Amino acid sequence: MKHLALSLALCLMASPLLALEPDEVLDDPKLEERARDISAGLRCLVCRNESIDESNADLARDLRLLVRERLIAGDSNDEVVQFIVDRYGEYVLLNPRVTGSNLVLWLAGPGMLLIGAGIGWAYLRRRGRAEDDQIDPLDEDEAERLREIMKD
Amino acid sequence: MITEFGHFALVLAFFVACVQAVVPLVGAYKRWPGWMAVAEPAANVQFLLTAASFAALTYAFVFSDFSVQLVTINSHTDKPLLYKITGVWGNHEGSMLLWVLIVTLFGAFAAWFGGNLPPTLKARVLSVQAMIGVAFFAFILFTSNPFLRMSVPPFDGQDLNPLLQDPGLAFHPPFLYLGYVGLSMTFSFAVAALIEGRVDAAWGRWVRPYTLAAWIFLTVGIGLGSWWAYYELGWGGFWFWDPVENASFMPWLIAVALLHSAIVVEKRESLKSWTVLLAIIAFGFSMVGAFITRSGVITSVHAFATDPERGVFLLLILAVFMIGALALFAARANVLQAKGVFSLASRESMLVANNVLLAVSALVVFVGTMWPLVSEMAFDRKLSVGAPFFNMAFTPFMVVLGLILPVGAMLPWKRANIGRIIRQLRGAFALAVAVGALTFAMQTGRSALGPVGLFLGAWLVSGAAVDLWGRTGRGKNRLGRLARLPRADWGKSIAHAGLGVTFAGVAGILAWETEDIRVLQMGESLDLSGYTVKLDDVRRIQGPNYTAVQADMVLSRDGREISTLQPEKRNYPVARMPTTEAALDIGFWRDIYVVIGDPQDNGGWAVRTYYKPLANWIWGGSILMAIGGAFSLSDRRYRVAAGARKAAPRASGVPAE
């Protein structure tokens, strides 16, 4: 009985798909490579942070096929991406565009590096110049101790 | 009964932590030895109670007590014993219990080995550590209680997520938590020092072992997770820039920065306030990580508890500790006066550059991780930030870091003669350029990634070797002296070389990986970068709690058979989830990675094969980094730090290297 239930469960379960199926691969290797490049930059919308190239969801498969369809129709890479963005929105792009508010994101790294380097440089200059007044004069006890040591 | 006992122990531990958070702090303020002395036994009791509680939960998992809700949801009688045990932390509630167990473990550690700390500092450290404990005990008891019972226990459980039933992932969380929570110790030290108003060389020396230990554990934990992703997810990706991965990577980067800046505090009494700030931020990032994983605010592959109530609670903990610590920092940082004087060409300056690069790169990862959230809330613009962005924005920092590292590692403290260092490193640099050029010549028409990565790898490894050799001085018997060098010197060179090996591995796999996806009929073979893979047999097999399709694929080269690979496609009927188990032929220069797919309508099987050059260098380098850390940690100068207290005011007199 248990075995029957098990085999039933097995039959009912959809078998897993590989991310990219052999039947999707285009014959033209140049075109296929472009398709892979584009797919790696597009997000699978129903997944959690996977590109359509990595995902085994049905939607990802549909999108992969759509990308290849557009490529065969003669679109350039940018046109294919734009075609998908027009339909699914900016959310599909794993590499956010350098426009509008996204400038903050893109400039965050260089900006922070400049600030960090500036602060670091100022600090180093200060430490370098602090040289002369940094040597604490000996206080009474220390001076006494030094005299003792020097006597020996 | 045992479950209730565990629950009760947890509640008791909560109360002990409350006492430990208040009494020693007051005692340290009023200079009452009796009150300060409460900290030590309290830390021990707190640890023992939490350990008992954890043991009770483990007992429920091992003996499949399905009247406990958590066991029902995450276990099954047929599950192998190993995964029954690791199932304890394979879920939100249990993993929080592990988290808090480690918080108390580190507290107990400070109690056991903190004999050389000044009594007030020790009392304050243990008190702050207990505050962290209080927060997380409350979090567990009020929002994520692992000991809840079912009114009607079922006959069997619902099994653990099959992806977690794997040795790599089974031990990934404990290491990661040891790292995250290890940073709580440096946080406690930083806050205690701010209250105390005193950060000196001795403080730097006390903090460093904890930072180092936390960093080693983080390195191992991240390495294990990445290795697991590599062989388990079915196509050999090793890093996805997923929010949860970033959550572990940011504390790692900050911990590296902290490790290096603590050296400056220890040896030169400079960078004090910066180091304290880093110690606070490092633990802050650990808690951000907990928040990202458990709140569901940011979608991620492995967010495992998505509950707004828990998210708010965690955010509250994060806010209280960060605002509190940073306010304290703002109020007290001015008492931390720098002492050391150094010129621009000195190891201090290079370590400042190291810290700027590491801190900014961690912030870049942070901004990228949080940007989708910010953008949606502030600009109503729903977007994604994925791997392409991080690769572009993060990589340059690592390239620059790799370039300056060997020079910085060899510069003497205070004032250096750069020309001399450059002369010493000339050979290493020439070798690295040669390796890069050779790589460039051998590959045809590909990206610059491979040559640059191999150049950096060779530069770092040979630079580390020159550094180590340079320390043996002149004259005869340099080999003997090499073996007798302090362990910290060995540790430094091994860890730096490890970074180079990892750089080379990442560049190699990204630049020269090849892939083949096709349908193979039985007995048919394919060619993959000079290797031949033949599909020999496919059969059904039965595992303990799964069924699988297993293939025999024969790997050969030039007609000579190398090995038979057996990739599987498993089905876990209880959890209703399929997994792919790739088979690997692991080699020094390359991995061959094969995956069996679905049967096709016209007969034959879908098959994916990958040729992954230098793949193991990624984890080999991580292991080297961890070993280097362990060498440093075992240096006798840290074991005998006991003497540091008496020598505290002059600990800067330790021979500068």
TrEMBL record, chain A:
<feature type="domain" description="CcmH/CycL/Ccl2/NrfF N-terminal">
    <location>
        <begin position="8"/>
        <end position="150"/>
    </location>
</feature>
<keyword id="KW-0349">Heme</keyword>
<protein>
    <recommendedName>
        <fullName>Cytochrome c-type biogenesis protein</fullName>
    </recommendedName>
</protein>
<dbReference type="GO" id="GO:0046872">
    <property type="term" value="F:metal ion binding"/>
</dbReference>
<feature type="signal peptide">
    <location>
        <begin position="1"/>
        <end position="19"/>
    </location>
</feature>
<keyword id="KW-0732">Signal</keyword>
<feature type="transmembrane region" description="Helical">
    <location>
        <begin position="103"/>
        <end position="124"/>
    </location>
</feature>
<dbReference type="InterPro" id="IPR005616">
    <property type="entry name" value="CcmH/CycL/Ccl2/NrfF_N"/>
</dbReference>
<dbReference type="GO" id="GO:0005886">
    <property type="term" value="C:plasma membrane"/>
</dbReference>
<dbReference type="InterPro" id="IPR038297">
    <property type="entry name" value="CcmH/CycL/NrfF/Ccl2_sf"/>
</dbReference>
<dbReference type="GO" id="GO:0017004">
    <property type="term" value="P:cytochrome complex assembly"/>
</dbReference>
<comment type="similarity">
    <text>Belongs to the CcmH/CycL/Ccl2/NrfF family.</text>
</comment>
<keyword id="KW-0479">Metal-binding</keyword>
<keyword id="KW-1133">Transmembrane helix</keyword>
<dbReference type="InterPro" id="IPR051263">
    <property type="entry name" value="C-type_cytochrome_biogenesis"/>
</dbReference>
<keyword id="KW-0408">Iron</keyword>
<keyword id="KW-0201">Cytochrome c-type biogenesis</keyword>
<dbReference type="Pfam" id="PF03918">
    <property type="entry name" value="CcmH"/>
</dbReference>
<keyword id="KW-0812">Transmembrane</keyword>
<keyword id="KW-0472">Membrane</keyword>
<comment type="function">
    <text>Possible subunit of a heme lyase.</text>
</comment>
From TrEMBL, chain B:
<protein>
    <submittedName>
        <fullName>Heme lyase CcmF/NrfE family subunit</fullName>
    </submittedName>
</protein>
<feature type="transmembrane region" description="Helical">
    <location>
        <begin position="96"/>
        <end position="113"/>
    </location>
</feature>
<comment type="function">
    <text>Required for the biogenesis of c-type cytochromes. Possible subunit of a heme lyase.</text>
</comment>
<feature type="transmembrane region" description="Helical">
    <location>
        <begin position="125"/>
        <end position="144"/>
    </location>
</feature>
<dbReference type="GO" id="GO:0020037">
    <property type="term" value="F:heme binding"/>
</dbReference>
<comment type="similarity">
    <text>Belongs to the CcmF/CycK/Ccl1/NrfE/CcsA family.</text>
</comment>
<feature type="domain" description="Cytochrome c assembly protein">
    <location>
        <begin position="89"/>
        <end position="295"/>
    </location>
</feature>
<feature type="transmembrane region" description="Helical">
    <location>
        <begin position="614"/>
        <end position="633"/>
    </location>
</feature>
<dbReference type="GO" id="GO:0015232">
    <property type="term" value="F:heme transmembrane transporter activity"/>
</dbReference>
<feature type="transmembrane region" description="Helical">
    <location>
        <begin position="6"/>
        <end position="29"/>
    </location>
</feature>
<feature type="transmembrane region" description="Helical">
    <location>
        <begin position="425"/>
        <end position="442"/>
    </location>
</feature>
<feature type="transmembrane region" description="Helical">
    <location>
        <begin position="207"/>
        <end position="229"/>
    </location>
</feature>
<feature type="transmembrane region" description="Helical">
    <location>
        <begin position="274"/>
        <end position="292"/>
    </location>
</feature>
<feature type="transmembrane region" description="Helical">
    <location>
        <begin position="175"/>
        <end position="195"/>
    </location>
</feature>
<dbReference type="GO" id="GO:0005886">
    <property type="term" value="C:plasma membrane"/>
</dbReference>
<keyword id="KW-0201">Cytochrome c-type biogenesis</keyword>
<feature type="transmembrane region" description="Helical">
    <location>
        <begin position="394"/>
        <end position="413"/>
    </location>
</feature>
<dbReference type="Pfam" id="PF16327">
    <property type="entry name" value="CcmF_C"/>
</dbReference>
<keyword id="KW-1133">Transmembrane helix</keyword>
<dbReference type="GO" id="GO:0017004">
    <property type="term" value="P:cytochrome complex assembly"/>
</dbReference>
<feature type="domain" description="Cytochrome c-type biogenesis protein CcmF C-terminal">
    <location>
        <begin position="315"/>
        <end position="636"/>
    </location>
</feature>
<feature type="transmembrane region" description="Helical">
    <location>
        <begin position="352"/>
        <end position="374"/>
    </location>
</feature>
